[in-house]
Amino acid sequence: MTVIMAYLDDMFFFICIALPLVIIWRIARWKKRGFNVKESLHEIGFLLFICVLIGLFSQTILPKSGAEQVYGTGVNLQLFRVVKETYNAIVYLGFWQPFYINFLGNIILFMPIGFLLPLLYRRMVYFPNTVIMGLCVSLFIEITQIPQSRSSDVDDLWLNTLGAFLGYLCYLFIHRRFPVITKAFKK
């Protein structure tokens, strides 16, 4: 649990640094285009989406100076290898950290993407668009990790895409229960 809290603290730090700059950018954009009160919920959702991306990229793309790599470096192209390694770590060593980070972390980090994209944009309401966008963001992250001393893993692609899919299902649930609210966030 302390590892997860360290990740969250790190994410919060980067969000706090970047958010004022994003707000200034959005205010400058409002002044140029004109502020529309009707779009205020969309702007709040957009700022939340930007915070999610900043937090995600701070933990996956930015190099960790002086940080020790727990899982090693390199590229894993063997599908479902993480399942076997995590299973062995839990069963034989009683070590749950890979499960929390590799499975839950990868899935939970991408759920907001799958939820916020269809909430904010009409084009993303369609299932394939949202899931493909989650896959593309995940692929971008994995490709940018290759030249760094970080591991790039094919299993992260399907786990992140699963997270985007589950986020999309959460959006569908909310949309079916409260269509007026979800419509208010759309642009």
In a few lines, what is going on in this structure?
The protein is mostly helical and 187 residues long. The protein has helices at residues 2-33, 40-60, 81-93, 97-120, 127-145, 154-177, 179-185; strands spanning 74-76, 151-153. Helix 4 (97-120) crosses helix 6 and helix 6 packs across helix 7 (179-185).
What does this 3D model show about the protein?
The protein contains seven helices and two strands, in the order ααβαααβαα. α4 (97-120) crosses α5 and α6 crosses α7. By secondary structure, it is mostly helical. The N and C termini lie far apart (38 Å). The longest helix is centred in the N-terminal third of the chain and has 32 residues, at 2-33. The radius of gyration is 18 Å and the shape is globular. It has a two-stranded parallel ribbon.
Strand tally = 2
Content of β-strand: under 5%
Largest sheet features: 2 strands, parallel
Helix and strand pattern: HHEHHHEHH
The separation of the N and C termini measures 38 Å
Q: Percent helix among the residues?
A: over 70%
Q: What is the typical, i.e. mean, pLDDT? A: 88
> What structural class do you assign from the helix and strand content?
mainly alpha
Supply Rg. 18 Å
Strands of the largest sheet, in order across it? Answer: 1-2
Shape: globular
Q: Note poorly predicted spans.
A: none
Number of helices: 7
